[in-house]
Design goal:
The complex is a heterodimer of chains A (about 270) and B (about 250).
Chain A: H1 15-42, H2 50-63, H3 68-91, H4 99-137, H5 140-146, H6 151-190, H7 194-204, H8 207-233, H9 238-269
Helix pairs in contact in A: 1-6, 1-8, 2-6, 3-4, 3-6, 4-6, 4-7, 4-8, 4-9, 6-8, 8-9
Chain B: E1 2-11, E2 14-24, E3 29-33, H1 40-47, E4 55-60, E5 63-64, H2 70-77, E6 80-83, H3 95-106, H4 111-124, H5 140-152, E7 158-162, H6 170-187, E8 190-195, H7 198-204, E9 207-212, E10 215-220, H8 222-225, H9 231-239, H10 247-253
Helix pairs in contact in B: 3-4, 3-5, 4-5
The chains are: A mainly alpha (about 270), B alpha/beta (about 250).
């Protein structure tokens, strides 16, 4: 059952009590998030039903197309900053041409999925948490349960599928825009020709960088959706609660994106 | 039909329901009244296990629902319709889509059959022209009527109403009362109504239970209820200008 009973705990007596309670709540949240993920993945088998297909496409549009503007601006400027900072350092050694490799590798491996994850957590994750939170406090989730409509299948699964598809696609788009931004700075500020920039980039980047970046983006998409849905479903106390859930969803997603990003890099690049 | 046996529920450190027992009989309109925070809505939520009792038992059709599996609970819930206080309509769907939702998701009816049923339900609650509007484009009263149409679209045996007339003007309130009465008379639906509105309770109720301080302080038919000597009941009646031989009896004669 998604609808939760209101909880009440007497205030802890001392610091140890407070710490213990935080620890217990953390473990519980982790467990509930894991169960929600398992439930949503189990319900992916219904993704080809007519309503689910339509909802997945709708969510893909919301997560992907509606985020394109902000993703483009952030990606282009990230690439430009990377190229400028690296290029200025390399200029001292007359090695500006290597900005191609620096920008492409860092965008593919790290910055592309990372920036996409942060943007989607802030734009889409917060919107999901706010929407489901509002539904929870206005008893719409309870209404679904009374109608025997599984909220996980109805609300979480389409969002999960949409984000799992769109985040890697957006991440790839972010990488391309970042490389473009770096190229613009290279050509206009550092005197690196387009052909040399792209040639250096493709020589240094490996196909593994692309795969790892896409894997990270996929994981980030799943994390953002599950965190946002979990926080949304757990919302209590009206408008204040919706605000708190939205805030928590963004913070938790940011932290998990950083932590998971590090461990994936550690796992796949450090032998 | 629905039986509460020594049900206790503590919320926020406060005992909201204190060992209450009652039974809702098949085909009756059972009304629960009481002041705010008395546990009326909490009782209603126990009937479909949106809340579970801390102790005691809740059974529907003779079978306890407190520890049933998810699949069994779904079977039990299929017997219910539930009208939430605010209507609980999904904001991104039109009124008609909201009403059709349980049919689309839980039945094998064709699109035409669903459209026909939705149109009939909308007509029954007087919203035949508002099916294509979104919930935030209609008034609170219309949202409640739309919620009622959704609650009854699958012809449930039991309908639970959480404050069906709160926040509505007297005319709309009486329209809702009439709808509840019609459902009982024409379709034999068992109804449980939670309300503050004693005028409504006395008009539609087969029996009325008054909750106060987590306990049932009065449980009787409307004629007996209005004559109750119980202090809390009297206070509640007087607060709504209903006296033993007063407005309610005049209304009955009218």
């Amino acid at each position: 059952m998604i609808t939760r009973e209101p909880e009440y705990y007497p205030p802890p007596r001392n610091f140890a009590g407070r710490l213990g309670r935080h620890l217990l709540f953390f473990c519980r949240e982790l467990g509930q998030g894991g169960l929600l993920l398992a439930d949503a993945v189990w319900n992916v088998r219904y993704v080809f039903t007519k309503r689910a297909r339509r909802e997945v496409v709708n969510q893909m549009y919301v997560a992907g197309i509606k985020s394109l503007g902000v993703v483009t601006v952030v990606a282009v400027f990230t690439g430009m900053i990377l190229a400028l900072q690296t290029g200025l350092a390399l200029r001292d050694y007359n090695q500006e041409v290597y900005i191609g490799g620096a920008v492409m590798v860092s965008m593919l491996r790290e910055m592309g999925p990372f920036m996409t994850g942060l943007i989607l957590a802030a734009c889409v994750g917060s919107a999901i948490a706010a929407q489901l939170g509002t539904m929870a406090v206005s008893e719409e989730i309870a209404a679904l349960e009374i109608m025997s409509i599984d909220p996980v299948r109805f609300l979480v699964m389409p969002r999960l599928v949409a984000m799992a598809i769109m985040t890697p696609l957006l991440s790839f788009y972010t990488c391309m825009m970042g490389v473009l931004g770096g190229g613009i700075v290279g050509a206009t500020q550092l005197g690196v020709a387009w052909a040399a920039y792209i040639d250096n980039g493709t020589r240094n980047a490996e196909i593994k960088d692309l795969y790892v970046g896409l894997l990270k983006a996929f994981l980030f998409g799943v994390i953002i959706t599950i965190v946002a849905c979990h926080e949304g479903f757990a919302t209590e106390q009206g408008a204040v609660g919706v605000g708190q859930s939205t805030r928590r969803s963004v913070i938790v997603s940011f932290l998990l994106i950083l932590v998971v990003g590090y461990f994936v890099t550690r796992l796949l690049y450090v032998s | 039909m629905i039986r509460f046996d020594q049900v206790t529920k503590v919320l926020g450190g406060r005992t909201v329901l204190d060992r209450i027992s009652f039974e809702v009989k098949k085909g009756e309109t059972f009304v629960i009244v009481g002041p705010s925070g008395a546990g009326k809505s909490v009782s209603l939520k126990h009937m479909v296990r949106l809340l579970t009792p801390d102790s005691g038992d809740v059974s529907v059709g003779g079978a306890s629902i407190v520890n049933t599996s998810r699949a069994e609970l779904e079977q039990v819930r299929n017997r219910f319709g539930y009208l939430f206080q605010g209507g609980a309509m999904l904001a991104w769907m039109t009124v008609a889509e909201n009403i059709a939702l349980p049919l689309i998701e839980k039945t094998t009816l064709t699109n035409d059959e669903i459209s026909d049923k939705v149109a009939a339900s909308l007509a029954m609650v007087g919203l035949e022209k508002d099916g294509e509007k979104y919930p935030d484009e209609i008034s609170g009263g219309m949202r409640k009527r739309a919620g009622l149409a959704r609650a009854i679209i699958r012809d449930p045996e039991i309908v639970l109403y959480d404050e069906p007339t709160s926040g509505l003007d007297p005319v709309t309130s009486r329209t809702i009362d009439k709808l509840i009465d019609e459902l009982r008379e024409k379709l034999g639906v068992t109804s449980v109504v939670v309300t503050h509105d004693l005028h409504s309770a006395l008009s539609i109720g087969s029996r009325i239970a008054m909750l106060f301080g987590g306990k049932i302080v009065e449980l009787s038919d409307p004629a007996t209820f209005v004559k109750s000597e119980q202090e809390d009941v009297q206070g509640f009646l007087e607060a709504q200008y209903i006296t033993k031989a007063g407005s309610w009896e005049r209304k009955q004669r009218a």
